[in-house]
Amino acid sequence: MTEKKDIFILGIESSCDETSASIVKNGTEELATTISSQIDIHKDFGGVVPEIASRHHVKNITFILEECLEKAKMKMEDIDAIAITYGPGLIGSLLIGLEAAKTLSFLYNKLLIPVHHIAGHIYANSLVKELNFPLLAVVVSGGHTELIEMTDHFQFKKLGGTLDDAIGECYDKVARVMGLEYPGGPKLDKLALEGKITYKLPVPLKDDSYNFSFSGLKSAVINLVHNEEQRGNPLRNADLAASFQKVAVESITSKVRKAIKDKNIKNVILAGGVAANKILRASIQNLSDELNVQLSIPPMKYCTDNAAMIAAAGYYAYKNGRISNLNLNSKSQDTLN
Ligand code: KG4
Ligand code: ZN
Questions:
Q1: Which residues of 142-161 are buried (b: 16+ CB within 10 A; e: fewer)?
Q2: Ligand 1 center to residue 172 CA distance, Å?
Q3: Mind listing the pLDDT tens digit for each residue in 221-277?
Q4: Which residues contact 328 (CB under 8 A, 6 or more apart)?
Q5: CA torsion sign, 37 to 271 to 7 to 99?
Q6: Which residues have any ligand 1 atom within 6 Å of their CB?
Q7: Considering only CA atoms, which residue is closest to atom 22 of ligand 1?
Q8: Does residue 96 share a domain with residue 212?
Q9: Closest residue (by CA) to atom 2 of ligand 1?
Q10: pLDDT (0 to 100) of residue 42
């Protein structure tokens, strides 16, 4: 019997404000990851400035790639294929990673695997635990809030999503009006631990769909803050954070409950930056225990953008024959399929 050959995938991620490279073995074993985050650079602007982000990707990409290979003690010759985030994301940022991937693919004659950014967030979980189907991916990030059903590897079906703001975007905007620095999500999460649920906020979209809506909740918080300011009432920031979180997390949990029941789900996974949220993690954990389904929650380092998740997804895409040629282009928007 011939021995199974190990597959080494080099992942590259540059869709927003992180430049990252990673080498993953057989889709599950992270050998090395390098990452350069621009959070401190964009903080002063209250959000990511696309042109500035692109310039930093240009500055960092070569160094990030070299350092990753060095860390893994590998050469490009040892790599089987290059997985690249082709979209969705900021177009200028995406193009920097894509050009690097194409150059390496051309120079070293390596296969090029296009990876959807959300597939990456989902497959971050395969670095921790084997995925079990039918699976429900709860995708909660700065740009996405979606419930995705998977019946097998790379078989995605969107059950529902946000009709307006993404959950992370809502967290960041609410945090901003409360005076917290960008990105406000993690700071609001921390602050909520010190607060009590005392403010009454509207529960969004209590319907029978798998959809979400967060703009009404965001506006309700903004109006509440302005009204309290006008009345000269001091704002109890920690209480507001706790009250906001309760409503936001309950809104997600109720739709996840419905999907698990309707679709006979065996495995729930959290994916995306907001998967780092403590209350959401606890709420989905309780729900999974109650309904007796397997839950995979990525460790914090795999929640926010990184190339290990792209390399992991790339391995399964490679197994599915999802290979591209050098005509591959970046897409700022694209559905997961
Ligand atoms: O997945 P990600 O790194 O980027 C996108 O692809 O969007 O997600 C970033 C988002 C930001 O909105 C950030 O505030 C949010 O994830 N986030 C959190 C927490 N940690 C990160 N939101 C709530 N609680 C957290 N602990
Ligand atoms: Zn992301």
A1: bbbbbbbbbeebbebebbbe
A2: 8
A3: 999 999 999 999 999 999 999 999 999 999 999 999 999 999 999 999 999 999 999
A4: 84, 86, 98, 102, 112, 114
A5: negative
A6: 16, 141-143, 168, 171-172, 183, 185-186, 189, 272-274, 276-277, 304-305
A7: 185
A8: no
A9: 273
A10: 67
Average pLDDT over residues 75-103: 97
Supply the mean pLDDT for the chain. Answer: 94
Q: Which domain holds residue 79?
A: 8-123+303-319
Statement: the pTM of the whole predicted model exceeds 0.85: yes
- Statement to judge: residues 193 and 258 lie in one domain: yes
State the amino acid at position 128 in one-letter form: V
**Is 328 part of a structural domain of the chain?**
no
Tell me, yes or no, whether 52 and 67 share the same domain: yes
Greater confidence (326 vs 54) lies with: 326
Return the closest-CA partner of residue 6 out of 79, 73, 71.
79
Residue 226 Cα to ligand 2 middle (Å): 31
What confidence score (pLDDT) does residue 3 get? 65
For a mutational test of ligand 1's pocket, the pick from 115, 171, 309, 310, i.e. the residue with the most ligand atoms closer than 8 A to its C-beta, is: 171
Sign (positive or negative) of CA dihedral 26, 29, 33, 37: positive
pLDDT at 40: 74
Lowest mean pLDDT among 36-50, 55-69, 118-132, 299-313: 36-50
Domain count for the chain: 2
* 138 lies in the same domain as 232: yes
| DSSP 8-state code for residue 324 | B
